[in-house]
Specification:
By secondary structure, this protein is of the alpha/beta class. The chain has helices at residues 12-30, 45-54, 57-73, 90-96, 104-114, 126-130, 132-139, 150-162, 171-186, 215-228; strands at residues 4-8, 38-42, 78-81, 119-123, 144-146, 191-194, 211-214. 52% of the residues lie in helices and 13% in strands. The protein is globular and about 45 Å long.
């Protein structure tokens, strides 16, 4: 198997899911006591959040690119960034290494298109929902993307940072996400993208009338399949 380099800690709550899901996929495919060869760098997320909200993206990009190179030098044969939002910096990370960068947006869009859907509702941080870096990646796979209204986006973002990243899973927040997803479906979404790696802690397939796509699980499975190979 090939070694995967994980850039995690954004937040560690979802990075722990990556570790679990990747190894479960390897066990299910290879059997016995097989698990994935992984290298991980885990950030102090407080510093990353401060860079995000201060618009210090160049500083964040330099840091993530350096970490990606460290993982490559340590033996990683592909890089997996365990967060949707920081894929804003995917070009800088990709440029820093000579090994593949497994993009969460590509993996998700490919899964959605394979299921025959064309119009996806997107939940995520305000950066993921409002900026072009993620939506354009989905559109490149011939997907239409719907996002919540402005006040809904603010609430979705708040719950991610103030609750889920701290391991808080509240019933009131689940109901709020259910309402947001229902509104997206009413506007024509034929599926929902859980486009933040923490959202899977709160809602899933049982919380909406259309199929959901858990970006954490999809990304982790794609990474595991790369590690195993053909």
């Amino acid at each position: 198997m090939q070694t995967i380099g994980l850039i995690g800690g954004m937040s560690w709550e979802s990075t722990a899911l990556y570790y679990k899901l990747i190894n479960e996929r390897v066990r299910d495919r290879k059997g016995k006591l097989h698990s994935a060869p992984l290298l991980m760098y885990s950030y102090d997320f407080q510093g990353i959040k401060e860079m995000q909200y201060a618009g210090r993206w160049a500083e964040a990009a330099a840091s993530l690119a350096e970490v990606a190179k460290l993982l490559e030098n340590a033996g990683a044969r592909a890089i997996v960034l365990c967060t949707n939002t920081m894929h804003k910096l995917a070009p800088e990370i990709t440029a820093s290494v000579s090994i593949p960068f497994i993009h969460i947006g590509d993996a998700t869009a490919q899964r959605i298109r394979a299921r025959g859907y064309r119009r996806a509702g997107l939940l995520g941080t305000k950066f993921t929902m409002e900026e072009d870096f993620y939506i354009d990646r989905l559109k490149a796979h011939d997907l239409d993307v719907l996002i919540p209204s402005a006040h809904e986006r603010a609430e979705v973002n708040r719950i991610i940072y103030d609750e889920l990243c701290l391991g808080i899973v509240a019933d009131a927040s689940r109901r709020r996400y259910q309402d947001v997803m229902a509104a997206l479906v009413a506007r024509g979404a034929d599926c929902i993208i859980l486009g933040c790696t923490e959202i899977t802690m709160l809602v899933g397939a049982a919380d909406t009338s259309v199929e959901t796509f858990d970006t954490t699980a999809i990304h982790a499975e794609t990474a595991a399949d790369f590690a195993i190979g053909p």
